[in-house]
Specification:
The protein has 211 residues and is mainly alpha-helical. The protein contains four helices and five strands. It folds into three domains: 41 residues; 85 residues; 38 residues, no CATH class. It is 54% helix and 10% strand. The protein has a three-stranded antiparallel beta sheet, with no helix packed on it. Strands 1-2 form a two-stranded antiparallel ribbon. The longest helix has 62 residues. One zinc ion (ZN) binds next to helix 1. Keywords: Coiled coil.
Length: 211
């Protein structure tokens, strides 16, 4: 049944020339489609609000904390090692000189015990003591020079990427299954990037770390 009323305007939803009454009807139909859209927006907002950031980032945060712990441990280790090195610089020499002092002392004790010494003995002992005196004095005025370089930590040492659910997180492939020597032509490359190579080497599918 074709409308007999005079058409007033072209409707933008159907591009037809419509009368006023039909225009109103079309308009009402369009308006009624807004309500479900509002419902959908509210639903999505609710979904977004219930999204728990910490739940999703928890594992990543754990990795970051492990990295921090490892770095601190490395600093502590090198600190301890260098402290020991510093002590060793002197303790070894001190032990050496103490040993020499005791040797000379036992020679003197022996001469006293036997009540027999020559001028040559005295000269020799005097010369040995003089030499030790100089060494010990030198040790006392020794300074230590320590050159240190600041630890360089680049922002790029930690890279954070959001990954799609269906992609494999290669950083989780932590252990090396097997080290392969691969000859050219013995495999078919399926996918690769700078670090990994996914190859088909009959009958296996291998994920190869280029290192
Ligand atoms: Zn229309
Ligand atoms: Zn009409």
């Amino acid at each position: 049944s074709k409308c007999e009323r005079r058409f007033r305007a072209s409707c933008d939803c159907c591009n037809k020339n419509l009368c006023l009454q039909h225009l109103n009807e079309h308009n009402a139909l369009v308006i009624s489609q807004l309500s479900p859209l509002t419902d959908k927006i509210n639903m999505l907002r609710h979904q977004l609000q219930s999204f728990n950031v910490h739940e999703v980032t928890g594992i990543g945060r754990g990795k970051l904390e492990q990295w921090r712990k490892d770095c601190h441990e490395k600093i502590d280790q090198i600190f301890e090692k260098k402290c020991q090195e510093l002590d060793c610089l002197f303790t070894e020499e001190m032990n050496q000189q103490n040993k020499k002092l005791l040797q000379i002392k036992s020679k003197i004790d022996k001469l006293i015990r036997e009540q027999e010494a020559t001028k040559q003995d005295i000269d020799l002992l005097t010369s040995e003591i003089h030499q030790l005196d100089e060494e010990i004095t030198k040790l006392n005025i020794t300074n230590v020079q320590i050159n240190t370089y600041p630890l360089v930590i680049e922002d790029s040492f930690i890279q954070i990427n959001k990954i799609d659910e269906y992609k494999i997180d290669l950083s989780n492939v932590a252990h090396v299954h097997r080290t392969l020597k691969i000859r050219d032509g013995s495999y078919t490359t399926l996918a690769d990037n700078n670090q990994f190579l996914l190859v088909h080497q009959k009958p296996n599918l291998c994920l190869i770390d280029r290192d």
